[in-house]
Amino acid sequence: MNAPTENVNVNLHPNVTVSARASAANRRIERTLNGVVRGYDALMGKLGLGGRKAPYDDHAYEFVGGARDELRAKHYDKSLRLLWKAEREMPWSTFHDCSAEEQTLMQLADDALNAAERAQMQRIGSAEYKALLDRSYTREEKEAIVQVLSAIGHGEAYAWLVSTEVLMNVKSTGAKAALTMQVLEEAKHFVVLRELLRAFDVPVPRQSVWEYLLLEQVYKARGLEKLFGMNVLVEGIALSLFGMLGDRPGLEVLGLFHLDESRHTALPINYLKEFPLTRWQSRNPLSRVHRLSLVLPTLPLVFLLEEPLARLGIDSFALGGSVLRKVGYLAERAGFDLAIDAHQLASSVNWVFNAYAKRTRAGHVWSDYHLADTTVGSALKEVEREIFAA
Ligand SMILES: [Fe+2]
Ligand SMILES: [Fe+2]
């Protein structure tokens, strides 16, 4: 029979006695097993046979890759600073995402308005919002807006899925914090944009085959190639669409989507500055062809959107030229080689658009679509100037 365990009150708390011997035994067992488990996992990791799954360094209390506080500050902190709530921006919606404090603040702001200001700023309900849309747009214009924006609406679903996977692929605490905010923002974009589009009371179209091909390819892309497909290309398109429509009646909330997307498009540049692509990752022929193959479906998409955009007074080729110039710039700065440089991409695309327009538009004169900028309004332009300043 074992000798009774000696219970020692170690004065941690007057009501609890612990056995010093048992505590010491527990620490010894833990240390030994820790050595075995960690050693086994480290060996398996070295041999490429598995090992620890989590890219987490508990000794440093960091994810593998280190702190990277600059990434955290530029993306996670900034996202939280600029976090917007649907209930406040779209009071007519079904969202109740404001805290009690935010609701009180909104009430105080409402109370401080004089009658004229209140008439202007009135928090509108769903029926009033729909009436505003009906006053502002014809049925054809509403259909056109919904067709154009639904392209990005479906894209938001993929952005949500893709950013969730990129979160697993990036290294460092800062980058994981940044991607976590992107996942949150894409979830918000998807559900809020869907409600906005449904308020137009016109059918929301399915994805066109060009969007389908593009987004499926991006979702299936390996590792950091997803950063090119999603953050550079798809979000480059989203940024341009939000920047193009964000000053129209009832669509002001798109300015906030635009602000979020500007952060998402800058993420590859900021991340790859800390963890640069190897020369092979950047320039190998397979990746270059793959990236170019992702860009290609955007051309027929521009042709497909020509008609709805024209109904809104926008030249689809100006949008296409503007988007692909910006995409080329972002790709180049992040180190995603496209086989042709940003300038060549923009001028090739311009040539294709002009050739197409020459065949299909009566009296077409050669235009510099690749120099166009379809982003409207000084606030939206200023947001993009920060990214595209160079
Ligand atoms: Fe988004
Ligand atoms: Fe995004």
What are the defining features of this structure?
single chain, 390 residues, mainly alpha, Ribonucleotide Reductase, subunit A, 2 domains, two-stranded antiparallel sheet, globular, disordered N terminus, binds fe (ii) ion
What would your notes on this structure say?
The chain has about 400 residues and is an all-alpha fold. It has two domains: about 5-55; about 65-85 and about 125-390, Orthogonal Bundle (Ribonucleotide Reductase, subunit A). The protein has 18 helices and four strands. The protein is globular, with a radius of gyration of 27 Å. Mean pLDDT is about 90; it is low at about 1-5. The structure holds fe (ii) ion (2 copies). One fe (ii) ion binds near residues 186, 189, 238 and 261.
Structural class: mainly alpha
CATH topology of the largest domain: Ribonucleotide Reductase, subunit A
Major sheet: arrangement of strands: 1-2
The ligands bound in this entry are: fe (ii) ion
Total domains: 2
Q: What is the CATH first-level class name of the largest domain?
A: Mainly Alpha
Task: Please describe the topology of this protein.
Blueprint: E1 7-8, E2 18-19, H1 20-46, E3 56-57, E4 62-63, H2 69-81, H3 86-89, H4 100-111, H5 115-121, H6 126-136, H7 139-169, H8 173-198, H9 209-220, H10 225-245, H11 254-274, H12 279-283, H13 285-295, H14 298-304, H15 306-311, H16 316-334, H17 342-360, H18 378-388
Antiparallel strand pairs: 1-2, 3-4
Bound molecules: fe (ii) ion (2 copies).
